[in-house]
Structures are given as C-alpha cells and as structure tokens.
Amino acid sequence: MTNSNAMPVEPSVLALAERQLGLISDRQLDELGIDRRRWVRAVANQQWLDLSGRVWLRSGAPCSGLTCGRAVVLHCGAGSAVSHHSAAALWGIPGFRLWPLQVSVPRTSWGGTDRIELSLPRNFVDDQRAIDHRVLVHRPTAWPDRATGMIDGVDVVRPALLLLQLAPVVAPKRLQRILDHLWSRGLLSGPSVAAELAPMLGRGRAGVVAIRTMLDRCGPGYVPPESNLEARLIDLIDAAGIPRPLRQKDLGDNVRWLGRVDLYWPQWLLVVEVDSDRYHGALSDREDDAKRQRALEAAGYTVVRVTEFELWHRRDQVIDRLRSAVAAARAHVAA
C-alpha cells in the first residue's frame, strides 16, 4: 500500500514505465528531467521499489522472471540483452532455464561489475521455482550489427548469436538439436547464421569451430528434422556409418504423387519412415501407412519402417536394420 503522503509522479514517468513492465531506470529519469530529490522521496514513500540501485519497479506492478530480465537490461543500458542459457529459455528451447539470469553487453558500453544484485520484491513470482537468483554479466569484445531482438518486452540476443554463445558449453549433438529447433520454427537458417555471424566466425574465439563444423555438415539444401524422433534416427544413421539422407522428400511414380517420406537416399531408392506412437498407432493410420508403402514399393522404392519404441529402446537392432537395408537397396539398384 502506498503512503498517504505520496508525491505525484510525472505522467511521462508513468507512461514510460507502463511500456517497460512497470520499470524505470536512472538514465531514463535523467533524460526525462526528473528531480532526483523528489524521486528519492517517491521511493521512500514506497511508490517505487528499488530493484538494483539503478532500476525501480512501480509499486503494485507484478514482478516475474520477465520483469527481472527487463530490469537487468535497463540496469546495463543500451545495447545489452538477456543472453546465453537465459536467452535460450526465453526463445523456448527445451532444457534451458532463465535463472541464474545472464545478460550480455558490449564491453565498450558497460563499465560496471560482472554481477548485479537484485532486490526481489515480496510479490515476485518465479514460475520456474529457481533457487539461484543471481545475475551474471557477460562483456563480449565483439558484437554483431544485428545482435538483439525482443521477446515479451525484453531485449534478448538473436538466435544466431545465441548459438555462438552456447557452442562452447553444450555438446555438438545438442548444439545441432538447438539449431534444428530454431530452424524448424523459422527463427533462423544455416545461411542466416553464417551471414549474421560472418564477422565473428573468422576469429579464434570459443565456439567458432563448433559453429563452422556444424554449418559445413548441414551443407546446402539441409532440412531440419521435423521431430525429436527424426533427429534420433539421424543420430543412429550417423552411428551406422551411412551417408545422411534427404529429409521430407516428395516422391512419386510416372503418374502420380505418392507422398512425402521422412528420409530418402536417391542413390539407392531407399526410404525410411518413422512411425510415432501418436500419429501411427491407430488401426486406420497403420492401414494408410501400409497402402502407401505398397505404392512406393510398386514404384521401385525400398521402404523400411522404424517405430518410436525401436528408436529409443532397440538402438543396436535399428542400426543393423539400416545397414542391411542399405546393402539390399544397393544390390537391388545394381541388379
């Protein structure tokens, strides 16, 4: 509850805070010409809650992880953005959490410490139930021209830069899954990553080799997996030592379109389909799958089906089946 002796706050401050999740920074107060002595009294009267010594939250405004992300960006100033694991969480990448909250700002723009202490208000709501509410500041020496975007009112590093930040700390296969996840959502592509990070990929910083290797491996015409099951199957194909196939390929005979298949090796006329429990478990689904398989085989294709259970629990058997299928398809084409 605000003090009965609360001082009126200029409409310009309220209007700006309204656009910033109820937040205002010291720099913005100066830009608006707010008298600091009056502001100190407003804070003392609990009209505004001090979050970091440089950023305040309007009393009564909700406070969440997003609010804290925006507060940290305001604290660090222009050019800063939520980054690393925290940015991955905001972009909706599975397996990442917002806290501890990480922020990046170009080294030339920030002269503060590498840690910020947030004073979380009583009404703070942490949907992730984190136990570590630290704030970590990263100060990169290189910063691409298009470094930041915005999610729900919070400045966040763009997906391409996020990949470079995560590359030194995640395994190559997980980095590939992150790329595929963002690519399948239309947030980036291999060419867009190469273009955005071009000024940084030639330098000997951590993560550059992993990014360049991943992009080279994708190559032109790469299509990201449409599901975790497809990504798992690609991992098994790699383990089997089989060249990577085309993905989500439309096939037909001389007369008609027969459908889009999950994986296809044109050199062997080999098709592999992934049968998920969700989309291929019903009797009608199995009947449709069988009908399409007969049509593909009649057109000269070799078809192999792999179930969701087999992918996760019969790894070695799937690898053996893939190798056998390649050998049989190769012999069939050569005959």
Automatic annotation (TrEMBL):
Residue ranges constituting the Restriction endonuclease type II-like domain according to the UniProt record: 267-325
Official protein name in the record: DUF559 domain-containing protein
Organism this protein belongs to: Candidatus Neomicrothrix subdominans
Pfam family, one: MTES_1575
